[in-house]
Amino acid sequence: MPSKDMRPAVIGLYGLPGCGKSFLLNELKKHLSHSEYAFFEGSDVISSIVPGGLSTFQELEEEQKQLWRGFAIDKIVSECQDSAKTAVVAGHFMFWSQGELATVWTPKDKTAYTHIMYLDVPEGIIAKQRLDDVHRHRAEIPLAELARWQQAEIDQLSHLCQRHGILFSRLPERSRSHIATVLKLIQFSSLVITEANATRVDAKVNNFLADHAELETVVVVDADKTLSSEDTGVVFWQSLDLRRPPLDALKAQDCPLSDLFSGPLGYSEAAFLQATLLYEEAANEEDFERICDIVASKTKMYAEFVSLFRSIACHDYVRVLVVTCGIRRVWEKILHREGFSRTIQVIGGSRISDGVIVTADAKAQEKKKNERVKEVVKQVYDAVGSFVNSERKEEFKSKLEDLCNRTCDGWMQIQHLEERVRPSFSPNYINVWKPLPGSSSSRRTETTTSTPSPASSTAASTSQKKPEEGQPRRQEVGKVIWPDGQPRRQEVGKVIWPSFLYQHPEDPDEGLLHHGYVLTDAQTAEAEKEGESSRRLARRNTRNNEQIGTKKRRDSGIFLSKGGSDRSGIA
């Protein structure tokens, strides 16, 4: 259940009038908990807030109607925010009148909804249901017009949803499993709002570690294009039986994921969530398993990785964890074929039942976290390990690692609070936080970052001064300012503070990445050079001070001191 401090999940049931939205809404009321979900007919909400009800509303000018429609969705969001419930709303996107289509969605709808489920019912069934409806008078519309109307809604809604980060699902005509499918989608939509995906990914990694308490090393690898030359996602879509009705809209393209990831969502978390819904729409559980078998049979692992994994399998203290943005089930089948089902675990997604999605950011963040934990454990152990009883050294390191992991998890939880905690090491966030590559809001970055908040405007203005022509770009203490805002991996010598994902304080849709505080190889070399110079100077001063009353033995290359002088400067 969402907390009162976070944005509620608002799920819209859409489709042409007569497709069965009200029927579906009433069925959902029977199956979903009323303590967790609130149900709304959009027209009923409008009727309840407009003086004079729906009849008065219908007499208003279109501009006034849009105003009241905006008030209605605001009321729904406010109620669910206060009650910490997920909203399920039956709404309208377009109306048809004498061959003309009029869009009735408002700007507030674009910011309120988190998931749109479109009832993609054949126009023949819609026409019959409209004709048989004894409770409402519905105009008789030709089948061709119904088809045009429906396609226009699907095209425009799917486009708007991608632009505004709203999940979009097409629901085919009702079947025996129709309600079960809708319930699964609704629960999925609620989950992704109420529990951060990164938290769920961390939980799976921690469960893996808990099941292998004897581990000293975990080898984390990607799957597609790493363990094999194949992209299993592309092979999956090429292997589909395109004769199945739900896939009619996908026939024109071999892999709809290419359009998805090249669109407004980029490779954002919302894009991977949408990809999961595409897989759900394309195949039921039985067909999905069958297609995964086909894809696995077409995918050959590199022999070098097979050999490496077999060597690792011989040791209890090291294990392999495959973390993939692709299809978890496909890679489980591939690894099972190679004999690794007991020794290698796969974390991935593509189905709602997986419970997680893995994005490039999630993989990078997990890798950074593991590196930092390992580094902290080593540094702390090097500092205090000599004070630990020899019989308990391994226990000490194990519990220290567990503490570090839990600290990281706690920090991740803090990052997903509604009121963000700004890291104290980065007051000038406008300058040091960079938009995530491919984020849906990257096009707005220039506008957003040019208007810092009052609290940081002074600091930001001083940190954003451009160097004079021909002068090197200024470097701040402990941090590198890169010319293009992105660190080049080959130049980074040591990360002295880890990277963090963050959300822009002035724009909740803006994904930001702090690259951390780093030292380049050049800076490290310069520091070592300065340190060596300081040590030479200290030794020279020491020798000069000791020359008074001190003789050097000429028969030896070793300088002997009689003591009494300050040797603290000698390294």
TrEMBL record:
Keywords of this entry: Glycosyltransferase, Transferase
Protein name: Uracil phosphoribosyltransferase
Organism this protein belongs to: Metarhizium robertsii (strain ARSEF 23 / ATCC MYA-3075) (Metarhizium anisopliae (strain ARSEF 23))
GO molecular function, one term: glycosyltransferase activity
Key word Secreted present: no
Biased composition (Low complexity): 439-463
InterPro entries: P-loop_NTPase
Coiled-coil boundaries: none
The keyword Transferase belongs to this UniProt entry's keyword annotation: yes
UniProt feature, compositional bias: Basic and acidic residues: 465-477, 526-535
Region Disordered, annotated ranges: 435-485, 523-571
